[in-house]
Design brief:
Layout lengths: L1 H8 L16 H20 L9 E9 L8 E12 L2 E12 L5 E8 L11 H6 L3 E6 L27 H16 L5 E11 L1 H12 L5 E5 L17 H7 L22 H6 L5 E7 L7 H17 L23 E6 L7 H14 L2
Parallel strand pairs: 4-5, 4-6, 6-7, 7-8, 8-9
Antiparallel strand pairs: 1-2, 2-3, 3-5
The structure holds beta-D-galactopyranuronic acid (GTR).
The site of beta-D-galactopyranuronic acid has 6 residues, from loops.
Length: about 350
């Protein structure tokens, strides 16, 4: 039974505030939300700098004739914003389906700059009326300890300074800044998404940036959707040994001490309430641990309830494979197969967006 499994994890309470009060009203939840963002900033992902005052985009090339058989406009945009050490810029691809006044959009945090890509079925998205703004994460900063590009533009302390996940998440928010200025994009219907390490990134981005009406994490696993307490596969110890630079310096102190931490990943998910959250697992992806991803959704669900939106609507068991749960504010599926951002995943994300006009 799911409820028994959940009890065994002994997850920290979403609602117990730092001073011992219980956040049991929407107003107190606003305060608690702030506390949780502070905890994740200090202990896991590092502190996010203030957003720049303005962001501008220059369209470097535009194809409105041939792209995707003439069904879409394809722009290559260079985004620029101010930082404490001067202007920073990075490129992204913007695909906009024709035939709508304003298109809902996916902000896709991508492993590659290519369009389409094995993880990005661009034509399928266009055919279903979704725009996509996709950027390659290493155009923002290297996936290594090297503090290049965006990382070089801000002072950073070793303990609480942002890690790479925080930087990629920040970049996704800057793209949304720009998209809000575009008359052809419906920025009120913006969904941030990514796979694996970039699924962790999408969650941290959407947790902080409430302008995203929907957040999708695909196979994000450890330090993403999955709770760390009782998790199998990757652990805090392992991830902070192999990828310490994804996080702030303090995170490592929790390796092997998950049970003592004042946080766990269901609290990250709760920050997305009452917006739509869609967590996706793949059944052979034991490294990410589908059970811990699903338990995390169940444990986050009371935050939606508090805000008077149904959270996870599921039976008291692990969901069947390939049967997406889309009834509540938290959606979930476990897809047959392995660690991959597949067309099957994308189609279900789009089904969900269609259904709720998100
Ligand atoms: C793995 C890492 C996971 C996951 C994955 C990926 O090596 O252990 O946390 O993020 O990379 O991003 O593909």
């Amino acid at each position: 039974m799911l409820s028994e499994l959940l009890n065994e994890r002994h997850l920290p309470s979403l609602f117990t505030m730092n001073d011992g009060r219980t956040a049991d009203t929407p107003d107190l939840w606003r305060e608690r939300r702030r506390e949780l963002i502070d905890i994740f900033s200090r202990e896991e992902y590092g502190c996010t700098p203030e957003a720049p005052k303005s962001v501008s985009g220059v369209i470097e090339s535009r194809d409105d004739e041939r792209a995707f058989a003439g069904k879409a406009v394809w722009e290559r945009v260079r985004l620029t914003f101010d930082t404490p050490r001067g202007p920073f810029s990075f490129p992204f691809n913007l695909l906009i389906p024709k035939g709508q006044e304003k298109a809902p959009v996916f902000v896709h945090i991508a492993f590659h700059a290519a369009v389409p890509d094995e993880y990005l079925p661009a034509e399928e998205l266009i055919d279903r009326g979704y725009a996509v703004a996709t950027f390659c994460y290493t155009d923002v900063t290297a996936d290594s300890a090297e503090m290049d590009k965006l990382a070089a533009m801000y002072p950073r302390d070793d303990k609480t300074g942002w890690g790479k996940i925080g930087m990629w998440a920040f970049a996704a928010s800057r793209i949304l800044d720009y998209l809000t200025t575009r008359p052809d994009i419906d920025a009120a219907r913006a969904c941030v998404t990514g796979h694996s390490r970039l699924g962790k990134t999408a969650l941290w981005c959407g947790a902080q940036d409430e302008r995203f009406s929907m957040v999708v994490s695909n196979d994000s696993g450890c330090s993403g959707a999955a709770v760390s307490r009782g998790k199998v596969g990757e652990s805090i110890e392992r991830i902070t040994t192999v990828f310490p630079f994804w996080f702030c310096g303090n995170y490592r102190a929790w390796s092997g001490r998950e049970a003592e931490a004042p946080f766990d990943q269901h609290m990250l998910l709760s920050l997305i309430a009452p917006r739509r959250l869609y967590v996706c697992s793949a059944h052979t992806d034991t490294w990410a641990d589908p059970t811990s991803e699903f338990l995390s959704c169940a444990a986050a669900s009371p935050a939606w309830t508090l805000l008077r939106v149904p959270g996870l609507i599921a039976s008291d068991a692990m969901p069947e494979r390939d049967v997406p749960l889309m009834e509540g504010g938290i959606c979930y599926h476990v897809r047959t197969g392995g660690h991959f951002h597949s067309r099957t995943d994308w189609n279900w994300h789009m089904d969900c967006r269609d259904r709720y006009r998100l």
